[in-house]
Amino acid sequence: AQADGVQSAMLMAAFGIGTTPALLASGVFASRLQQLALQKSWRYLLAALLLLCGIWTMVMVWQHAGHHHH
Q: CA 7, CA 39: separation in Å to the nearest integer?
């Protein structure tokens, strides 16, 4: 039973070591994203992209309205 505990602890340590780079990278990415969000031009660009995605979604739904595939 003690070997299971040691094996579990080693597995948890390996998982922690393996995920640390991804966690650090996501922190750096979040910090950079926050800096970009403060820039008005980026906010307008992202708003325009979101608007275009919404329009595109509505067009796709409208084009496929009445087309029933069984």
A: 49
Report the SS3 class of residue 31.
helix
Tens-place pLDDT, residues 6-51? 999 999 999 999 999 999 999 999 999 888 888 999 889 999 999 9
| Report field, pTM of the whole predicted structure over 0.85 | no
How far is it, in rounded angstroms, from Cα 8 to Cα 34?
Answer: 38
Which tokens hold the place of 4?
A: 């299971």
- End-to-end CA, the chain: 55
